[in-house]
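Mods, move this if it's the wrong board.
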Amino acid sequence: MTFRIYLTDFEEVSRKLKKLQERLTLPTLQHWAKAIEVETRNMISKEEVKESIHIEVIEVEPNKFEVKASGKQEALPNMAKATQNKLGKMPLASRAIFNVLLNQIEKKIDRKTTSQT
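Not the wrong board. Structure tokens:
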């Protein structure tokens, strides 16, 4: 089986990737971080646990971002659920970044669960 890829196809892919990257802005990522933080807090009844939840995005270099999340251990399952709820609504580029956050949260939950058994 043979197939051809024309240079115009690469140009189109390159344009689409550039367009995705342009949508990846600090305000956009901060919006999603705040949305996850608010939804997580709404899932929790203990005030001290609610107040421990913080999610922020900082730009460490041009077009390179870091998501910082903190909260008490008992808030992590709710933070994971809130993140999962928001992922489907995010643009693709934002989704990729917050999917990394979700993976990190799930690893912390797994470590805690493993250490308790």
